[in-house]
Every structure is written in C-alpha cells, then in structure tokens.
C-alpha cells in the first residue's frame, strides 16, 4: 500500500493523518467523523473554543460547505487557490459545530500541495486540519518537527519542507468589507488589487478576530524565552542568535525551523535580530505577527 492509500484508509477509519501543505503541516480528520475531530482536540490539547480550518480540493467542494458563496468568493478563490488564503464564511449543515466551535461561519482553504489535494480528491471528503503542533506551541514545517512532538502516534504524509512556512492569511467576508483576521503570505494589497481588477468595491481592513488564535497573546512559542532586538549584541555563548534574512519569503520559510533548532541548542535563551525596515514592509506582516506572539521580551516593537 502506498502512503496515499494508507492515509486514505486511516481517514476512512475515523483516524488522523498529518498532511503536508505549502504553509505548515496539518493534523487532519474527515469533516464527517466526529470521533476523529475530537481526537484532534485531544492530541493537540486544544480548547474547543478554537475553530478548525476545513481543507478542500475544488471550488465545487467549497460551495457545498457554505450557504453564501458569491462573486467575491469566486474572484478570491480564482486568484489565490490553491494557496495560503482561508476564507471564513457562513457554514452549511455539512459542517458540524465541533469544527467551528459553535460559530455560524467556517474557514475554508484549498492548500497548494499535490499530495494533500490528491488525498482530498481520492476520498472526496473535505479535511478539517489545524497546524500539527501542541496548542500555543511552534508550528511544524518538516515531518521531523511533527515526529518530535507526537512521536509515532500519528501517520505523517511526508512531502519535505513547507515552501512558505507560516500559516495562511485568514479573512472574513462581511457585507461592507473584508477583514484580515490573521496576516500571512497573501497581503492586504494583493487582496485589494484582485478585488479592484474584478470591479468589486469592498474595503479590506485588518483586525484580529476574537475567535482566532491570533487573538491569543501567546502563540507559536518555543520553550526558551525569545528577545527581539534591532542590533546584534556582543556574542554571548548562553544565547542562540538568529539574524533574520532581508527577504520576507525566506525569513518566513525559515522561522519555525529556526525556533525549533534554537530551542534544542545548549543555550538558555533566543535572540532574534530584525531590521528596522521590516516594520513598514507589508510582506513582513505575517512573519512579524508570529514573532510578536512567540516573543517574551521586546526591544524591537517598542
Ligand atoms: O496555513 C494554515 O492555515 C494551516 C494549514 C494546516 O492549513 N492551518 C492552521 O490552522 O494554521 P490553525 O488551527 O492552527 O489556525 C487556524 C485559525 C484558527 O485558530 C481560527 O481562529 C481561524 O483560523 N479560524 C478557523 N475557522 C474560523 C472561523 N470559523 N471563524 C474565525 N476564525 C476561524
Ligand atoms: Mg496553529
């Protein structure tokens, strides 16, 4: 049996599978299996108030899970799917309350990974999947990260390193505006331009959703304290230091791997050196958002 068939079998048997995506690895269950969905919350130690993103392989599949697919959704899906955009919209009856934490809306995303898309197609079943890490801890961008956290308790569909490295941009569609709940690789300007090009007159605003984990003050955290600085300190052997690359794509791709690696080093704390210019650069929004929640002390943001 190949890995894909094994993964299909597990999902059909109310079990979990770790799926690769272009952002981070996800811990997936069939949306139709209440047993499997409950397992997600249990092994992640995730509270039930934090809703799960549902992964689909086509717009047709997405339309069955919502009662309000409209032209705006069409435009955004055409432009950004498969890709790192999660669209939060009113759910249909196919989505059980456990997935949305009782909220009337569901987050839908079509991931840009061939193996995972094939798995969803083969099963003809959408997969609910949060990032495959313990609640509030660092997300995994390699199969070995998942292994470190969950051991052999879950089957991992290994597809190498995730190309983007930070979680999807999450947006909510309101009647008068689009709200970015969680910043990611897809920026506000990119969303605005795609709407403008299609003649859709909707404002794009930022502001975390009270129900997004982004709204939690601490998230994505390694065990060691993290200090964010603008200038490198004289070398201190008890500190692991990472000078962040100038390119937002590379910085985002490396972030979680670096945090995990530095957490394993024989040091007491982590220092991350950032350029002043990152703050005004939209491409760094997602990256800085994650660091802001992972950090302990901050000489950069103030
Ligand atoms: O890139 C990603 O989005 C990854 C990969 C695996 O797809 N997934 C991910 O899932 O980051 P998770 O569970 O770690 O974060 C998803 C966040 C939730 O914490 C939640 O707050 C927000 O997306 N979200 C999901 N459904 C929502 C809803 N119905 N309303 C508001 N926010 C929602
Ligand atoms: Mg997560």
What layout of secondary structure does this protein have?
Elements: H1 3-12, E1 17-19, E2 26-30, H2 34-44, E3 53-55, H3 59-63, H4 71-80, E4 85-90, H5 97-100, E5 105-109, H6 114-123, E6 127-128, H7 143-150, E7 155-156, E8 169-173, E9 177-182, H8 188-197, E10 203-206, E11 226-229, E12 239-243, H9 248-264, E13 269-273, H10 285-294, E14 297-298
Parallel strand pairs: 1-7, 3-5, 4-8, 9-10, 11-13, 11-14, 12-13
Antiparallel strand pairs: 1-2, 2-6, 3-6, 4-5, 8-9
Helix pairs in contact: 1-6
What does this 3D model show about the protein?
With 302 residues, this protein is an alpha/beta fold. It folds into 2 domains: 3-206, DHBP synthase (Alpha-Beta Complex), CATH 3.90.870.10; 226-294, no CATH class. The chain has 10 helices and 14 strands. The protein has helices spanning 3-12, 34-44, 59-63, 71-80, 97-100, 114-123, 143-150, 188-197, 248-264, 285-294, and strands at residues 17-19, 26-30, 53-55, 85-90, 105-109, 127-128, 155-156, 169-173, 177-182, 203-206, 226-229, 239-243, 269-273, 297-298. The strands form 2 sheets. A 10-stranded mixed β-sheet has the order 7-1-2-6-3-5-4-8-9-10, sandwiched between helices. Strands 12-13-11-14 form a 4-stranded parallel β-sheet, covered by helices on one side. β1 and β2 (26-30) form a beta hairpin. α1 (3-12) packs across α6. It is globular, with a radius of gyration of 19 Å. The mean pLDDT is 94. Bound molecules: threonylcarbamoyladenylate (TXA) and magnesium ion. Magnesium ion binds next to loops.
């Amino acid at each position: 049996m190949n890995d894909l068939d094994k993964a299909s079998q597990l999902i059909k048997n109310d079990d979990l599978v770790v799926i690769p995506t272009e952002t981070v690895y996800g811990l997936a269950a069939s949306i139709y299996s209440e047993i499997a969905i409950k397992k997600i919350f249990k092994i992640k130690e995730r509270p039930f108030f934090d809703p799960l993103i549902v992964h689909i392989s086509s717009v047709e599949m997405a339309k069955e899970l919502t009662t309000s697919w409209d032209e705006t959704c069409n435009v955004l899906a055409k432009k950004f799917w498969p890709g790192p955009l999660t669209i939060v919209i009113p759910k249909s009856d196919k989505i059980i309350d456990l997935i949305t934490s009782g909220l009337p809306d569901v987050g839908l995303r079509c991931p840009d990974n061939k193996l995972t898309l094939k798995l969803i197609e083969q099963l003809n079943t959408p997969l609910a999947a949060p990032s495959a890490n313990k609640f509030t801890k660092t997300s995994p961008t390699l199969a070995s990260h998942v292994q470190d956290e969950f051991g052999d308790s879950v089957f991992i569909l290994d597809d190498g390193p995730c190309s983007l490295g930070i979680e999807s941009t999450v947006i909510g569609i309101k009647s008068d505006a689009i709200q970015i709940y969680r910043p990611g690789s897809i920026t506000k300007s990119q969303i605005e331009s795609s709407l403008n090009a299609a003649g859709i007159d909707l404002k794009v605003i930022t502001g975390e959703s009270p129900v997004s984990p982004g709204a939690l003050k601490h998230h994505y955290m390694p065990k060691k304290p993290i200090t964010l600085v603008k200038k490198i300190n004289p070398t201190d052997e008890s500190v692991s230091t990472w000078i962040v690359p100038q390119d937002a794509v590379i910085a985002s791709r490396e972030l979680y791997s670096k945090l995990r690696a530095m957490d394993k080093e024989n040091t007491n704390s982590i220092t991350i050196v950032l350029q002043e210019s990152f703050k005004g650069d939209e491409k760094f929004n997602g990256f800085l958002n994650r660091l802001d929640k992972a950090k302990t002390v901050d000489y950069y943001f103030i």
